[in-house]
Amino acid sequence: VTRRQWALLFCVALGASLSLALPVQAGSYNIDGKGLLLRGYDPVAYFSEGEPVKGAAEFTAKHQGATLYFASAANRDAFVKDPDKYLPVYGGFCAFGVASGAKVDGDPTIWKIVEGRLYLNINKSVGRTFAADPATYIRRADQNWPKLKDK
Question: Which of 16, 23, 26, 119 is most buried, by CB atoms within 10 Å?
Fold first, then answer.
């Protein structure tokens, strides 16, 4: 079994085993039990700081039923002005998982920006696999997302 096949099997098996533990969903967003997207990380910071930064309840915005925290009022305002620029692709679910046909949790600390879009993955191993060939996985995920997003 190749590394890619192992990662695919792992992601699908993990998705099946976590099906009862998936976070609550608002539409097609991966939100936690508190209604937070990105587990409270600031979506703007990935782009402005180049790393995940925890947001604060003091700087909050809502988007399609999901609550987002920001590290500053300026980041919140930038998000409100152009949310699509900062939202994680596939609603914050694992990009590799979506490419594999499964909707599994995305870890906001396992991320990659590709062509100005934020992608999350479930763990470091899957993140490395995704990062090795993002164009292929993004193409597959883009094909799968329409049938997965509302499930």
Answer: 119
